[in-house]
Amino acid sequence: MAMRAGKLKDRISFDQPTYDGDGLRVGWNEGAFECWAAIRYLRGGETVQAARLAGRQPAVITVRLPSDAEDVTTDWKLRDLGLDREYAVTAPPVSTDDGKWLEITCESGVAV
Question: Within 10 A of 1 (CB to CB), how many other CB atoms are there?
């Protein structure tokens, strides 16, 4: 995908989980960092269609590299600040072939 900076129209907040001494999640460090991103909702295959029927919406969120988002793991959540929508991170971030962008696979409509 040829991404251009002008496509980064969504303001995203990255929320890091906080844990107690026993390793149980007790809350969120909301707004650990924010950046501009492009949200692309997935369409297509049977798995995506089944998720959408269940009220979940798979998406790929793209941010510019270098980014603090390189440290995001699947226990983080992302928030679209414009739409007030939460996304569960479903896969570790992956850099694009050209090394300029980071893609994060997420899903909205699930408990985070």
Answer: 12
Q: Are 89 and 104 in contact (CB under 8 A)?
A: yes
Distance in angstroms (rounded) separating the CA atoms of residues 67 and 90 = 18
6 DSSP 8-state letter: G
Reported pTM: 0.83
Matching residue, tokens 């929508």: 85
28: nearest Cα among 75, 71, 67, 63: 75
CA dist 68 to 56, 102, 105, Å? 26, 10, 16
Question: Mind listing the pLDDT tens digit for each residue in 6-24?
Answer: 889 999 999 999 999 999 9
User: Which residue, among 10, 112, 111, 17, has the nearest Cα to 60 in the 3D structure?
Assistant: 10
Cis previous bond, 66, omega within 30: yes
User: What pLDDT, on a 0 to 100 scale, did the predictor assign at position 61?
Assistant: 97
Residue 30 has pLDDT above 90, yes or no: yes
How many Å apart are CA 62 and CA 101, to the nearest integer? 7
